[in-house]
Design goal:
- It contains no helices and eleven strands.
- 0% of the residues lie in helices and 48% in strands.
- It is mainly β.
Length: 133
């Protein structure tokens, strides 16, 4: 059964940094985009950042551009989210998610229109990030 195992998260002061990791396993294909969504209390789940597993295409939400970076370590089968210059409005539960793709899909694996909550196939359990003033 496919799983996404997340780690990282925690409490940090504004201006600080955190790194999240996500290790997917037993996915049915190597053709997928992977990244993070976040959800603050009372708000909808928001797509933050993603990367294509095979083509390294990326999408970064405007709210985190210049502060968040996503990288993948294929040898470790792990994806990392480096979060710098954190702000209180970055607080929320961060979910790793994967969208698998059809072999007939020749678009980049990670795009803004593909990385939407309703289209994701697998989800991690989430990890809490709290940024204090």
């Amino acid at each position: 059964e496919a799983q996404l195992v997340e780690s990282g998260g925690g409490l940090v002061q504004a201006g600080g940094s955190l790194r999240l990791s996500c290790a997917p396993s037993e996915l049915p294909t190597d053709d997928y985009g992977i990244g993070w969504f976040r959800q603050a209390p009372g708000k909808e789940r928001e797509g933050v950042i993603c990367i294509g597993n095979e083509d390294d295409s990326t999408f970064v939400a405007d709210s985190v551009k210049g502060r968040f970076t996503i990288t993948s370590d294929n040898a470790k089968h792990t994806v990392y989210l480096q979060m710098n210059s954190l702000r209180p409005d970055d607080t929320g539960v961060y979910y790793c998610a994967v969208r698998t793709l059809d072999v007939s899909d020749y678009d980049p694996q990670c795009t803004s229109w593909k990385f939407t909550a309703r289209d994701m196939d697998y989800w991690g359990k989430g990890t809490l990030v709290t940024v204090s003033q």
